[in-house]
Amino acid sequence: MRSDRPTVGRRGEEEASSYLARLGHRILARNWRSGHLELDIISLLGRELHVVEVKSRVAPVMAEPEQNVRRDKQRRMVAAANAFLHSAERKGLPADLEIIFDVLSVVFFGNGADFEIEYYPNAFIPLYA
């Protein structure tokens, strides 16, 4: 598999979206942007709006991909989620959604045909939002 970041990132988000869809999520948006803020995946599962950060890597990895979602990234995710909730794309969604912040890691092996997904629902709770 080509190991350049854009290729790995796009493929990781494709696999992550497929994985979430198999779990029953309805994918509302991928790579949603508002100014300099971005969300990898926004999905709906029941009355939960899932904001998902996807971390993709090619093995071998030095650190687990999900460990790269630190406090500064969490703050940006919360800000982006707030922007989404105030955007036109939010129209038609229930008013009483619970917002869930998830992390999903995809690690590709060899030529990329094999990969491993680790999903961390409720990866963090934004107490500072």
Could you walk me through the main structural features you see in this protein, from its secondary elements to its overall organization?
This protein is an alpha+beta fold. It has helices spanning 5-22, 71-85; strands at residues 26-34, 37-45, 48-58, 98-109, 114-124. It has a 5-stranded mixed β-sheet. The protein is globular and about 45 Å long.
Walk across the major sheet and give the strand order. 1-2-3-4-5
Helix proportion of residues, in percent?
A: 25-40%
H/E order of the elements? Answer: HEEEHEE
Instruction: Report the strand count.
Output: 5
What are the segments in which pLDDT stays under 50 over at least 5 consecutive residues? none
Alpha-carbon Rg, integer: 15 Å
Number of helices: 2
Give the oligomeric state of the chains in this entry, treating copies of one chain as homo and distinct chains as hetero.
single chain
Average pLDDT, rounded to a whole number, is 90
CATH class: Alpha Beta
Q: Give the strand content.
A: 35-45%
Q: Please, how many domains?
A: 1
Distance between the termini: 39 Å
From the 3D structure, determine the CATH topology: Trna Endonuclease, Chain: A, domain 1
Which second-level CATH architecture applies? 3-Layer(aba) Sandwich
Descriptive key words:
single chain; 129 residues; alpha+beta; Trna Endonuclease, Chain: A, domain 1; 2 helices; 26% helix; 40% strand
